[in-house]
Write a structure and sequence with these properties.
The protein is an all-alpha fold and 118 residues long. Helix content is 70%, strand content 0%. The longest helix is centred in the C-terminal third of the chain and has 21 residues.
Length: 118
């Protein structure tokens, strides 16, 4: 992707990034700091006014805790039960390490209990 662009695809991508950022309550400044770019660059990406490198896209995926296909608008791969699992995984990834441990131990216990009921 070039540095400046105005295509509908970039606008749609920017909207999905902005929507997800709002969902997880991060400011543009937070995202910029985590991605190693300026807040102005985040603003231009979200506005569809600027493309980003693959490196920055990967950082955005990690920061926003989403599947790359979801950001790209290809929800066919993240729908149904698999999509629910991926969404839950993303939510867990944004917890503190100690909280992740509690959630994972709880899920393991539930899965083990369900297997014993069969």
């Amino acid at each position: 992707m070039g540095n400046r662009a105005g295509s509908q695809d970039l606008i749609d991508l920017g909207n999905r990034i902005r929507d997800r950022r709002h969902e997880i309550r991060l400011s543009q400044e937070n995202v910029a700091e985590m991605a190693g770019i300026s807040a102005n660059t985040v603003s231009r990406i979200e506005g569809g006014q600027s493309a980003m490198s693959i490196e920055i896209f990967i950082k955005m995926v990690q920061i926003l805790g989403v599947d790359a296909n979801e950001l790209l608008g290809d929800n066919a791969l993240v729908t149904g039960e698999d999509g629910q699992c991926q969404e839950m995984f993303c939510r867990i990834r944004h917890l503190r390490r100690s909280e992740q441990t509690v959630v994972l131990q709880t899920v393991e216990a539930l899965v083990d209990g369900l297997r014993q009921c069969r």
